[in-house]
Amino acid sequence: MKKRVTVKQIADEIGMSMMTVSRALNENGNINKKTREKVLKTAKKLGYIPNFVAKSLVQQKTFTIGVIIPEITHSFFPEVIRGIEEVAYQSKYQIILAHSAEDQQKEKLAIRTLASKRVDGLLISTAQSVTEFDHYQEVVSHGLPLVSFDRCVYDIGVSTVSIDDELSAEQITEHLIKIGYKKIAHLAGPVTVSIGKKRLNGFKKALKKNKLVLNEDFIIPSGFQEADGYNSMKKLLKLPKTKRPRGIVAVNDPAAFGAMKAILEEGYKIPEDFALVGFSDDIRAELMEVPLTTIRQPAYELGRIATQKLIAHIENSKEKVEEIILPTEIVVRSSCGFKSSS
Amino acid sequence: MKKRVTVKQIADEIGMSMMTVSRALNENGNINKKTREKVLKTAKKLGYIPNFVAKSLVQQKTFTIGVIIPEITHSFFPEVIRGIEEVAYQSKYQIILAHSAEDQQKEKLAIRTLASKRVDGLLISTAQSVTEFDHYQEVVSHGLPLVSFDRCVYDIGVSTVSIDDELSAEQITEHLIKIGYKKIAHLAGPVTVSIGKKRLNGFKKALKKNKLVLNEDFIIPSGFQEADGYNSMKKLLKLPKTKRPRGIVAVNDPAAFGAMKAILEEGYKIPEDFALVGFSDDIRAELMEVPLTTIRQPAYELGRIATQKLIAHIENSKEKVEEIILPTEIVVRSSCGFKSSS
DNA sequence: TTGTAGGCGTTATCAA
DNA sequence: TTGATAACGCCTACAA
After folding, report:
1. Which of A236, A185, A257 is nearest to A214 (CA)?
2. How high is the pLDDT of residue A2?
3. What is the least distance, in Å, from the CA of A195 to any CA of chain B?
4. pLDDT value of residue A157
């Protein structure tokens, strides 16, 4: 293997100093045009590849953003990543992608590793199992810019980008109520995660606002995965017929898919026996055996805006910490029965 | 903002040399147990975060792998990435994810940037618009390990991980033939991309083997996106009725989805008017209005194995260059008519 | 416009 | 077991 070409080698080759070469390579100012061309030609001839590691060390800047997501299989996060990558690319940043797989320990480790790799900033959507946020606090206190998106952390002084989960959950629950359903259950996410708690709150709010009694048995602790929705729904189906809900508000689409599977599996019909709604408008939602009523989230935009905000924080330490809320839209399909005019 | 804690600061704090601290931090051998504990305690007290950038510079190793994919929205690549991330994580590597968006220029730039960031290796699935591979050759000749996956490059001396595209395309085409279709068209991918060329070859092979005439008009240049399939199918539908094919082999599932849309849009039925098959078993394939017959690819496994091979190359320069082929499976659904027993 | 000296934070090497 | 010194490749700051 040939020895790596460095600035010094180029300098020696043309009999000039390293600084001249460095300047020529970086298109700064103040350099003789001919010198510059000579340097560039020599660099090409020798097959020079600049070393960003060395550059990063000197400049204390890596042009790299760490991205930690809890999940990647479904359609939401890939869309978010596309948005992140696009904005990062435009600003000449790369992204290091880490997958927490909903696991707190992995998330913690990822944060530490990324901090050690000296990423310029961090974009995080919290794992399902996360119960405390010391590990966020730790890097933030070291001055590492962090933007929390989708599943956010509040009160630690970082910008957040999300939708209005509470309001959206309230809206979709109310949609069921307006159609005429009264006994409505919620397959809830973990309340330690922002979206779990906020969607539950929205669900409760809708009942209250419409003077429906909140039956605590109808709040089924669930999770964000299809299997969670499936298991929770199975539990509901074990209740005696008269004690069962008629409407189901799932914490997200994958959970709704699981619930749908459980319902159909036991020979019940949607929406005749159970009305079902999800949350996030997964790419599969409209394709399911019973197309799913859900909340559409602007995933791609969310990725873009979170990244823009993060880069703003990186490049300007005075950038204002904000809670950014993106609009959603209720998408009515057949899983909840006829369309309401409201 | 407080000043960053370094090895030197820890050393000063406890009155020892930097080397002792470094050794203690790295759990090497040869260090007094008490010294080690003292260092660790002090490091924690001061909030030390190791600087991998400096370490990388010294050790000429970043524990980072560059991953370049052409597309991220559909289900194939997210699954691959999950496999990549998992294996990388187990071996303590992180991944830098770059998105070429099917664009040759972006892919070139990504390769250069990743080489400059001194990733330890590169995992690439070629963009649709790529016509020449000098940019691969360039980094490979510099000794940067590269593994080409899914959409592979051959003959440049790198390991490849893919399925047997030619055989699989032959099989699924033959499946249509066995059912009884004789006039079969192919929505082809760009032949400059391995899978485009190989799937076309497989298609041709199946016709030949079964003594069907190859009608060049039935090979429609298409692309890997839904819109490409849609446009190509529209072209086919403009042919006079008697000159139209009865079976359609799409280069991949998204293209098949586009074709399906075009067919149904004009009031035709699948499979009654047109039998349709795809390739890759996208997550939506079984959920479509007409469930799609397709080839199942082991995406997650593909990501895992490509990464294992890459890390093997990284950690052992004598690792054998291989063409790894993963098995596929034909998944018969209703879009191709009744199930064949074969 | 070009060059010199020093340092970014860490580890390899050799010596004590 | 511990320490001093140089080196990784580049850039900042200052000088010529």
Report:
1. A185
2. 53
3. 23
4. 95
Q: Which residue is nearest to nucleotide C7 (CA to C1')?
A: A58
Q: What is the pLDDT of residues B4-56, one digit of tens each?
A: 899 999 999 999 999 999 999 998 778 899 999 999 999 999 999 999 999 99
- Tell me whether residues A98 and B94 touch, CB distance under 8 A: yes
> Which numeric CATH code is attached to A59-163+298-327?
3.40.50.2300
Q: Which residues, numbered 263 to 322 in chain A, qualify as contacts with chain B under a Cβ-Cβ cut-off of 8 Å?
A: 283-284, 287-289
Q: What is the mean pLDDT of each run of 10 residues along chain A (342 residues)?
A: 82 94 87 92 96 98 98 94 98 98 96 98 95 94 97 95 98 96 96 95 98 94 95 95 95 97 96 96 95 97 98 97 98 83 40
Is A115's Cβ below 8 Å from some Cβ in B?
yes
Determine the distance in angstroms separating the CA of A170 from the nearest CA of chain B, rounded to an integer: 29
CATH 3.40.50.2300, chain B: domain bounds: 59-163+298-327, 165-297+330-336
Quick check: B82 and A98 CB within 8 A?
Answer: no
Q: Quick one: A272 exposed, middle or buried, by C-beta within 10 A (0-12, 13-18, 19+)? A: exposed
B1 touches chain A (CB under 8 A): yes
Backbone phi, then psi, for A180, in 5-degree steps?
Answer: 130, -5
Nucleotides of C under 7 A from a protein CB: 1-5, 7-13
Q: Report the DSSP beta bridge partners of residue B293.
A: B277
Third-level CATH fold of B165-297+330-336: Rossmann fold (3.40.50)
Of 1.10.3570.10, 2.60.120.620, 1.10.260.40, 3.40.140.10, the CATH number of B7-50 is: 1.10.260.40
The answer, yes or no, to whether residue B168 has pLDDT greater than 90, is yes
The secondary element (H helix, E strand) that includes residue A254 is: helix A253-265
Residue nearest to nucleotide C13 (CA to C1'): B19
CB proximity list for A59: less than 8 A, separation 6 or greater = none
Name the B residues in 123-152 with CB < 8 Å from any A CB. 138, 141-143
**pLDDT of A28:** 74
**Do residues A66 and A96 lie in contact, with contact meaning Cβ atoms separated by under 8 Å?**
yes
The span from the CA of A123 to the CA of A84, in Å, is 9
User: What is the value of pTM for the model shown?
Assistant: 0.94
Partner residues linked to B121 by β-bridges: B65
